[in-house]
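Continuing from the previous page of notes. For each protein in this section, the sequence appears first, followed by its structure tokens. Read the first protein now.
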Amino acid sequence: MDRLDAVPGGLQPAAPAAEPQGAASFPLPSAAAARYSVWLLTFIYMLNFVDRQIVNILAEPIKRDLGLADWQLGAMTGLGFAMLYTTLGIPMARLAERYHRGRIISGCLVVWSGFTILCGLTTTFAQILFARIGVGVGEAGCTPSAQSLIADSVPANRRASALGTFSMGVPIGSLAGLMIGGLIAQSYGWRAAFMVAGAPGILLGVIAFATLRDPRPAGTPKDRANLLPLSAVLKQLRGQPAFWWLAAGSAITSFVGYGQQAFYVSFFLRNYTPELTAAAQAVGFAGPLAFIGVTLGIVLGVSGGLGTLIGGRLGDRYVARGPGGYGMVAAISMLISGPLLAAVFFLGSGLTILVLLTVPLFFKNMWFGPVFAAIQGMIAQRSRATATAIFLFVLNAGGLGLGALLTGLISDLFATSYGEAEGVRYALAATSLVSFLSAACFWRAAVVMRREAAGA
């Protein structure tokens, strides 16, 4: 684990802990080159979430146009995307261990952007489900490659901060997706929103191919043949229970996050359309969908972005006080966010709820940097993409794959007794409380990391 040593004058960065046995050794790129890579990858990750999450603001128009049930919305926004996103992540990561990660990322960016555009051409549930699966196929190669590239580009004692910056792509991309989707769909329809969202990725893919550098030497075919097989990476991870506790906590957290984001817009439209229509007219928006897209996007982007950034900084700071610091930052953030998030859906008007959402969402996004930094420090450099893909497989199978689908089913279940509008409210509140389980998993990971360090 990375740490800070106490010296006269305060806490100063200490030399990073040794990497796992068998780690590769190669020089870090210059600070300027590392900053460029981190920010370019953050922007790519932002587009990743624009294309992944724009469907949430478009859910109600798509539901009306294609005549879908809430469970179909959940399958389209979560399960359909996750089907191949989760299963292809590991083979794509194996390619990233062998070949230029920047070129893999740029190619994947072009693929998922193309399928996002295709979503705008669909006319049936089966077609849009297929297109969403295609988006997942393209995005499968992004995160493992990008996180391992960042981990190889920055000093170990800055890893949580760098990965926290990268993870800002999640809330900022969600912000942009909601704003773009809401504004364009209100005026030109949901199909046009998909096309506008997908187009920039084609251009950025070309830029990334030409400029994104991989600090790891390409090596020879013999070098690549000597890389650890998947079974050996799994064997290493089996000996690290903290990895699996972090993966379990992240999967539960993602279950809440993905499930709720799929239904935020539906919640506001079903419960507060007259109020939000009046608010939209007062500020000059064409309708409530555009207003919700912009305001909810700002809430998710600003609060989530700040939470992600500060969480990464806190991770770097508190791991200095002990090897469980990463896990404790994540555990405390989930412990605070769960009850606040459950309560906020019952607190007054639609505008009040929009404003108050900033508080629980700030805490809910603090886990990214600390957890990803902990994962990157558990495995040798040349196997980091594979370890990340295994981690994301667990995370997304439980979170992305089931979150939206089960939240939709819970909403349909409550709707039989309370109506469609209240059904989605109770579903959002109920799933918020699952955050207590993720807090327990992160806390357990912290305990294990401390115990292992004490016995080392």
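Done with the first. The second protein uses the same format. Note its length before scrolling.
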Amino acid sequence: MIGGVFIYNHKGEVMVSRVYRDNITRTTVDAFKVSVIHARQAVRSPVTIIARTSYFHTRQGSVWIVACTKQNVNAALVFEVLNKMVQVLEQYFGSITEESVKNNFVLIYELLDEILDYGYPQKTDSGILKTYITQQGVRSQSTEEQKQITSQVTGQIGWRREGIKYRRNELFLDVLESVNLLMSPQGQALSAHVSGRVVMKSYLSGMPECKFGMNDKLVIDKQAKPSTPEAQNLESQLSKRQGGGVNRSVAIDDCTFHQCVKLSKFESERSISFIPPDGEFELMRYRTTKDITLPFRVIPLVRLSTQNHVEIKVTLKSLFKAALTAQKVEVRIPIPPNTSGVKIITLRGKAKYKTGENTIVWRLRNMQGQRQSELTAEVELLPTTDTSKTKQTARVPISMNFEVPFACSGLKVRYLKVFEPKLNYSDHDVVKWVRYISKSGLYETRSHSNY
């Protein structure tokens, strides 16, 4: 793996040198200084190979942080270690400068010994390192703290410390989605996908274990029944609440999880089991492309009544339930660059022509579901012989911005359970909050045009 880590100043002087392998010598250190730092030509690549030795470097101002090795290693892994190393150093003494490195070189040696062991990455989380390496390099003295350090370093829950206590146990879960759409003038979705995140804020005492389930297609549509009695009970309760009908499932194309999630249980039971970090964190990311509920439909009509007169009519329909209300609705309608004047008529919201952007911006503070609003605009054009710009503007799609209080992918939280065997509280004592928010990503509709 990594044979050594060196920190140079802008002159090429070695301020910190930590060698992990015997094949790294002083000649190896000087080779990088002569060939890279003192080289007259600009450095084009962060990877340099000199005499069968690979050098990986990153610069922080006038400071060079270099990792070298004589083995064939994964370059992406080495740069990830260097970036984590930079983050840890910044957490301890702020910006990395020549002066800060000289003032904290003893601390840097201690950190390098913990981050890398014989050249292999060990601990790169600053939260864990700060529990037993303080800024002055003083280690924890009490036996209880030493036990906490050992469990965090060697155990599976390094992201959470023991002894956390709250008067009120609360758990917040936000399903945040970004809807992307490209629709044809005929109303056909050319491309549509949803990128989502599940963000949690946990204010729980002790070391609780949480179980989170969603209406994933592999759970709902799977012929085999849930493997645990608890999952079977929750399945029957969900069916009763929905009148015994068929549950809508979500086909998730791909997803990634936080390191606290136990992937083995997710593969066997399709339930997300984890011990949450304290505070806010991102539990998972996902992406889906099937059965997306589109919140809005834009129906544009562009007509060239005369050679210098264009009529634009845009109909905006909200397709979600009438009980819901969308916020921050904005429609951006492009118009030709040779526009001399615009007359806008709309009964809802406010519309304004922005000359610098050649766009009509139609804003509605809120809009309920199953509603329809219209905007008409009469555009006067300056006479011009260059029709290419006008035709090019006509091809620019109409875009939208919005925020709706539901998940457009159809994802639902089926259950959220908290178990804490050591402390004196149960799942019923935890206050839980679940919220769904979908925002517009690249939400565009192509328009008809005969000019």
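What the second structure shows: The CA atoms of residues 81 and 121 lie 7 Å apart. The two ends are 64 Å apart (CA to CA). We return to this in next week's lecture.
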